[in-house]
Design goal:
Helix content is 46%, strand content 21%. With 277 residues, the chain is an alpha+beta fold.
């Protein structure tokens, strides 16, 4: 094979690799494709490669998408690294985009710190808890939520759990909380006690959904809505679609807001007493 043909073959291999990895490649991958260090340095000086992290380059330009930045961070952390925590949640579209990219590696040592990357080391990360989404190694939804449960305030975790549930992601039964997930839910239970209403089940499954409160014998579902987790167009539409499906399953769904539970507790109690007969 002539030098010209060999070079074309190398270029094609790098282009295919970069296209599969959102525009980024690792030093090891470039070496495997046939590029030596001196060539990589020369191309970087010419602006053909752009150094994103130590040992990771963007091909052609440095204007990476979120997926490109996530992929670069995972490549920078070496073999077996996966996107995790808030960054994994953003990739699964169950939580907002965090300011720092979070990556998990197996073990409790090694892996140098990287600018813009928070590295989590875990002895419990199993291959069965990881997968690929959009080509990016990432913790599966169930493991992502387990990690979020320890990292987020209860209300933010509740929002992520509900979104994962709405998207029908495989989240695992062990993630169901034993108690209320927010101050608003605690206030609602206190209201029930104060007005001597029957105690509902809290945070239980009804079909595919995790509902806030349930009076099973009356097939009555109560959802308590704080603006922070329900005050968006997406949340509004998701909640209504969920309510419709519960209705088709034979459940009545009633929603109470923070203001109703706080300022209109007597009216809420009266409504519940009527609904419960």
């Amino acid at each position: 094979m002539s030098n010209k043909s060999a070079n074309a073959s190398v270029e094609a291999a790098i282009a295919r690799l970069a296209s599969r990895q959102h525009g980024v490649v690792s030093l090891a991958q470039l070496n495997a494709a046939g590029l030596h260090r001196s060539v990589i340095v020369r191309r970087t000086r010419k602006g053909l490669f752009h150094r994103i992290h130590r040992g990771v380059y963007a091909v052609g330009h440095a204007g990476l998408s979120n997926e490109g930045r996530w992929m670069a961070a995972v490549l920078a952390c070496g073999e077996g690294a996966v996107l995790s925590h808030r960054s994994a949640a953003a990739l699964w579209t169950i939580a907002p985009l965090p300011s720092v990219i979070e990556v998990m590696v197996h073990g409790d040592a090694g892996r140098r710190p990287r600018n813009g990357i928070r590295i989590h080391r875990s002895l419990t990360l199993l291959p069965s808890q990881t997968t690929r989404r959009a080509g990016i190694p990432v913790t599966k939804p169930s493991r992502t939520l387990e990690d979020l449960k320890r990292a987020l305030p209860s209300d933010q975790f509740a929002a992520a759990l509900r979104q994962a549930e709405f998207l029908r992601l495989p989240i695992g039964e062990q993630l169901e909380p034993d108690h209320t997930r927010s101050e608003l839910e605690s206030r609602f239970l206190a209201l029930c006690r104060r007005h001597r209403l029957p105690k509902p089940e809290a945070n239980v499954r009804v079909g595919p959904f995790l509902v806030d409160f349930l009076w099973r014998s009356r097939r009555l579902v109560i959802e308590v809505d704080g603006f922070g987790t329900h005050g968006t167009r997406f949340a509004f539409e998701a909640d209504r679609a969920r309510d419709t499906r519960l209705k088709l399953m034979g459940y009545d769904v009633v929603r109470f807001t923070w203001r109703q539970i706080g300022d209109g507790a007597s009216a809420v109690a009266a409504t519940l007493r009527t609904l419960l007969g």
